[in-house]
Amino acid sequence: MTVESSEAPKKPLPPGLWHGQGIHFFGLAVLLAWVALTWSNIDTPNPFLFWLAIAVPIIHQIFVWIVWRLQLRAGLEGERSSMRSYVTLFFILFGGRFVTLFTLGWADRGSLNLPTVPRAILTTVLLVIGLYAMYSVKRYFGLIRAAGADHFDPAYREMPLVSEGIFRFTSNGMYLYAFFLFWAISIGLNSLAALVVAAFSHAYIWVHYFATEKPDMNYLYGAK
């Protein structure tokens, strides 16, 4: 005869601060090596603007990683003041990605040497897809939720999955399609240096996904 334990199953611990960050820093090192090699092969244009445009995405994603993990470990759920501060800094850094990329592209415009008509067509296609993805995030998902509000407020974890707009085609429209806006800026400005930054940013967000976001989502949502 067996006796069933009356103890409730223990809730799993959230990912630690450094969980998955081996992948993060290895991926970042590989990408930075590629960026440095590619930049040197295009005659190292606009060094300050170029490395500033590279630094902002790194600062942004390291900021998100540290805040998310400390928030989960501290268990300060429902702390709206901390969430407001986080979201404000998140969107300042997110906007900084566009500002620094555009500034670099403008300083380096013409270096890509794409003909006008193909460049206009490609820029338009990328811009339309990217803007539609951003509209879908705002309209159906919510910008605050997209920034990681579920790390602060449990109510966001009860929201249903989104399948409207760009999310009809993928569950991760933000990372897959919204980042086309960076490509649109670099191609629209005909800048090779900006194109390198756009490629870095798009690849690096997927490093963030596998190293930080995916483990966090497994903890927050489990089987759901």
Can you walk me through this structure?
It is a single chain. The protein is an all-alpha fold and 224 residues long. It contains 8 helices and no strands. Helices cover 68% and strands 0% of the residues. The protein starts with 20 loop residues before the first helix and ends with a helix. The relative contact order is 0.18.
Chain-wise SSE layout:
Blueprint: H1 21-41, H2 47-74, H3 80-107, H4 116-141, H5 143-146, H6 173-178, H7 180-188, H8 192-221
Brief summary:
With 224 residues, the protein is mainly α. Helix content is 68%, strand content 0%. The mean pLDDT is 92.
Helix proportion: 55-70%
Task: Output the structural class.
Answer: mainly alpha
Give the count of structural domains: 1
Shape assignment: globular
Averaging pLDDT over every residue, what do you get?
92
What share of residues are in beta strands?
A: under 5%
Which tags fit this structure?
single chain; 224 residues; mainly alpha; 8 helices; 0% strand; globular
